[in-house]
Design brief:
Chain lengths: 433, 531
């Protein structure tokens, strides 16, 4: 990072103004289509979500350069929900009622998504949600472009159980204490047991948000790993807590060859704050890696560097999800010939658009998309090296077949018009579950 | 004549043998790029068992991603920085091939594990005892019956008693996995039982579940002895973890002990002053990386005084600009400083970006060493030492210097101090600046264990207040005792209750304690309190 005097002065000047200009409005053109961007630009989640705001601005600028949509320019409306979950709902309402946006791209944490759901249902608008999540949800107004558990967690565990992945027999499920890790670990625990793993070979730990003293947890993992069976850690540790976790692993000498850690929330962006040399070989499972060489991806990365003016800015999985989601929305609007939410919601299933890794993402009737799954190992340069990938594209599956409460549920917004249809009782459970 | 013929035949045989070995080696190296990761790790293992030292650079190159294969199938070792290539088989220089024409021979964890074991096998007879020690430790981790012969040979040639013992333990672990006779396995159990650490546990646990009753019994006895011994070390380890957590808490809280404890200002921006210290460290490291990489080991020593000055200056600015107008109005101070904390956070976010910044650990802050079965990480040890040093200096400043005397005088009785000719305004600013500067020092230390992001301060502000209130506001020693008590209590609770519940229990404990003793552990007594 270069700190020039001008950027420093500019920064200081911006500081005074920052709280005043937080809701950045685009140009006030008379006839535009407004696109809402609902990502935290301050508070704990700013670390991850600011990038998504930037990538949306880039995608919208690109589309405008191509002539916009339906002959109109797109106008981004950026608001800052400040990592404050109730504020997400307020800002969503503001975007839809006041700014009259046609669609919203936003949210990161599951709790923020849950907080805006009622608003989107009530005001009937569209939300594109770009982050991997715990599943067990399918809403008419939400399109999930991130991974469902069967597109990330389950394949990653399959890899670790395979011969190439080290034939892991003993599992530590380590997570931050909130809904995504808890649900994912519940699914994984049921899945592991269905594969014949004994209860004593699974250890589940939770730590608070922003946990920084990992000494006890890491030594616990070390002790658990010395039972003569190949052990791996499946990490759903989120955000801030990852850096001290990996630092402690490195300092206590846990190498990826002995106890690999496979993370679901650590990507290129998170590694940028770390010295990655001691972490070589630890794993992450995603549907996209910056290191994957395809012409689409190379073009995207080049555009990103040009747009941000920073040749070192990395790209990551949720950015690709927004890329896919945005292109799907543009296609759907052009096919429908209108931006009316109801029509666009009905048009979206079946829309196909290329992803960045050489495949084609299709919006399914359950409002999830098809994705490839990759397992990558951390490299010295902070990038991931793909060591395994699924044979084809995996269709997203919101309801986990491994949990008793959801094994009979399916979601189909095209034929059944229902997000939680019970295939045994043959009824739509509707909003009450 | 016959003797001559025999000699010729012997030479031929020898030549043939060496050619055969060379062929094995080159065939194996040629096979490396082919097949799956599993196939590659099998080839690596064979290279290790071949006992040919030429394999070492090839395996190291594979481990470091420097092994490449050209379009015609030649396997090359390519130097990362210069791009110069050498043949992996003959070692001949091959010029500088175009990087795009080469494919990397990839390694994953499984292959890397095989490489570690193979290099271990090849360096068991290395002249350097440290390398032999590492090789023996790696062999212990691998515990592969096929290593027994090589280990036997190495043990008989070994002079260093320490290395020899580890080799014997590695052999024992391998024997337990082999189909050796029971007597040998019993001896192996005994050897590993004496080692008594996690590695021994890993080797013994599967035996304890085996079907042969005598072996299972012996292993169980050894295991329970190890676990009993580990009880003691676990206690020691918990105390150490507690001390190191306490040192982090103390560092974060000791600045607050001055601004809040001594001056009575509720400074919600305290955490952000810590964060500024951490970002100062980042900037110092950035400059060093760019201009003087040789000084990197000194980066923290250079950053510490700078962080003190930066945070101290910001602290004085806050005091002069805001806090001084609000003395005696705690609620307004709280709100105003909270606003300052948000401004500082957003300022840093605007200048440095919202994501984490990479603050490196100098060599002397990385890794760990062992005391018995207890592992002590260097960074935690240095932070403990640093924190005690800061505490000692602070105490000396407060107790032994004229400015310290004035600080105490002003905070205890402002009117009287003013009458004695002390410029109370200036002393207020200096005291606040001292507290803020120490927060900056805490930031330097925290940058080594936590992530440097604009949120760094928020994670410590609640803990800091907890420590100061628990220890007793106004008493620096109370802060020390409070920090270490909370640290150790937390670390003893954590293994049983989990991290989340431990934190809650501590908080509940403090609330109950404050009910009983509202002024904390070490209450300040005397008339000053009443005013």
């Amino acid at each position: 990072m270069n700190i020039t005097r001008r950027s420093l002065l500019g920064g200081i000047a911006a500081v005074g103004a920052a709280p005043l200009v937080a809701p950045v409005r685009g140009w006030a053109a008379e006839d535009t289509i407004k696109v809402g961007i609902l990502h935290s630009l301050s508070g704990t989640m700013a670390i991850s979500e600011t990038t998504l705001k930037d990538v949306m601005l880039m995608l919208i600028a690109q589309q405008n350069a191509k002539g916009g949509v339906l002959g109109k320019k797109l106008e981004p409306v950026v608001v800052d929900p400040a990592s404050n979950w109730p504020l997400f709902a307020e800002k969503a309402r503001e975007l839809i009622s006041q700014d009259k946006v046609a669609v919203v791209f936003g949210c990161w944490t599951s709790v923020s998504r849950k907080s805006v759901l009622p608003v989107f249902k009530e005001l009937d608008n569209i939300l594109f949600y770009p982050v991997q999540y715990e599943g067990q949800e399918s809403e008419r107004n939400v399109f999930y472009t991130g991974a469902a558990p069967n597109q990330q967690a389950i394949p990653a565990v399959d890899y670790l159980m395979s011969e190439d992945g080290g034939s892991v027999k003993r599992w530590v499920l380590e997570g931050t204490d909130y809904v995504y890790p808890r649900t994912t670990n519940k699914i994984l625990e049921a899945y592991l047991k269905s594969k014949g793993v004994a209860a004593e070979d699974i250890m589940i730990n939770y730590t608070p948000f922003s946990f920084s003293d990992w000494q006890t947890e890491v030594s616990k993992i070390k002790a658990f790993g010395s039972a003569g069976k190949k052990t791996a850690v499946v990490s759903t540790i989120n955000g801030d807590a990852n850096v001290p976790f990996y630092k402690e692993l490195a300092n206590q000498g846990i190498k990826a060859e002995d106890i690999p850690v496979c993370a679901f929330s650590v990507g290129e962006e998170e590694l940028a704050g770390l010295d990655t040399k001691p972490l070589v070989g630890h794993l992450a499972a995603w549907n996209y890696f910056e290191s994957i060489k395809t012409p689409e991806n190379e073009a995207f990365i080049a555009e990103w560097h040009k747009f941000t003016g920073n040749p070192k800015r990395v790209t990551n999985d949720p950015m690709e999800a927004h890329y896919i989601g945005f292109n799907m929305w543009v296609k759907a609007v052009e096919k429908a010939g209108t931006i009316k939410a109801d029509t666009v919601i009905d048009t979206l299933p079946g829309i196909k658009t290329p992803n960045l890794t050489g495949g084609v993402a299709e919006m399914l009737p359950n409002h999830h998309i098809t994705k490839p799954v990759y397992v990558g190992e951390i490299q010295e340069d902070g990038q991931f090296d793909v060591v395994w990938q699924t044979k084809g594209l995996v269709p997203g599956q919101p309801w986990s077949p491994y949990l008793p409460e959801s094994k009979n549920l399916v979601s189909d917004w095209v034929k059944l018009k229902c997000g939680n249809y019970d295939t045994v009782k043959k009824i739509c459970l509707g909003a009450k579950s | 004549m016959t003797s001559l013929l025999r000699a010729v035949l012997t030479i031929c045989a020898l030549l043939y043998a060496s050619v055969a070995v060379a062929d094995d080696f080159s065939a194996l190296v040629q096979a490396l790029p082919k097949g799956s990761y599993h196939a590659r790790s099998v080839v690596v293992k064979k290279l290790g068992l071949l006992g040919d030292a030429r394999a070492v650079p090839v395996l190291k190159a594979l481990n470091n991603d420097d092994l490449k294969v050209a379009g015609d199938g030649t396997v090359l070792i390519v130097n990362d920085t210069t791009g110069a290539a050498t043949s992996a088989i003959g070692g001949a220089a091959m010029g500088k091939p175009d990087p795009n024409s080469l494919d990397r021979v990839k390694a994953n964890n499984m292959v890397r594990r095989a490489i570690r074991t193979a290099i271990g096998m090849l360096t068991l007879r290395d002249p350097d005892p440290a390398k032999r020690m590492k090789a023996a430790e790696d062999a212990l981790k691998a515990a592969d019956p096929e290593q027994i012969d090589a280990l036997d040979a190495a043990i008989s040639a070994e002079r260093d008693a320490g290395v020899k013992a580890v080799m014997a333990e590695a052999r024992a672990a391998a024997v337990l996995k082999s189909d050796a006779p029971e007597a040998q396995k019993l001896a192996a159990i005994h050897t590993l039982g004496d080692r008594g650490d996690n590695a021994a546990l890993a080797a013994l646990v599967p035996v304890a579940n085996s079907k042969e009753p005598a072996l299972a019994q012996a292993a169980k006895t050894a295991l329970s002895a190890i676990r009993e011994a580990q009880q003691f070390w676990r206690l020691a380890q918990n105390i150490w973890f507690g001390l190191s957590l306490g040192s982090v808490l103390l560092l974060a809280a000791v600045g607050l002990a001055i601004t809040f404890g001594v001056m009575g200002v509720i400074n919600m921006a305290h955490g952000e002053l810590v964060m500024l210290g951490a970002y100062t460290t980042f900037v110092v490291q950035q400059v060093i990386r760019a201009d003087a990489p040789g000084l990197f080991g000194w980066s923290l020593a250079i950053a510490a005084p700078l962080a003190f000055l930066v945070s101290g200056a910001v602290g004085i600015a806050i005091e002069r600009g805001i806090v001084r107008h609000l003395y005696g109005r705690p609620l307004e101070t709280l709100l105003a400083t909270w606003g300052v904390s948000l401004i500082l956070q957003q300022a840093v976010r605007t200048i440095f970006g919202p994501d984490n910044r990479d603050v490196g650990n100098p060599g002397w802050m990385s890794g760990a060493f062992k005391i018995g079965q207890m592992q002590v990480t260097w960074n935690r040890l240095w932070i403990l030492i640093f924190c005690l040093a800061v505490f000692a200096v602070l105490l000396a400043v407060l107790k032994k210097t004229p400015i310290g005397l004035q600080m105490r005088a002003v905070t205890q009785n402002r009117a009287m101090a003013a009458n004695m000719g002390i410029r109370t305004g200036g002393v207020d600013a200096l005291t606040f600046g001292l507290g803020a500067g120490i927060a900056g020092l805490a930031g330097v230390a925290l940058s080594q264990v936590d992530n440097v992001s604009p949120n760094l301060g928020q994670n410590y502000i609640v803990d800091s207040f907890m420590v100061v209130v628990f220890g007793g506001a106004g008493n620096i020693w109370g802060t020390l005792a409070g920090a270490f008590t909370l640290g150790i209590a937390n670390k003893f609770l954590e293994p049983f209750s989990g991290a989340v519940l431990a934190k809650i229990l501590i908080l509940v404990g403090i609330i109950l304690f404050i009910q009983k003793r509202p002024r904390g552990l070490f209450a300040v007594k005397g008339r000053a309190v009443e005013s």
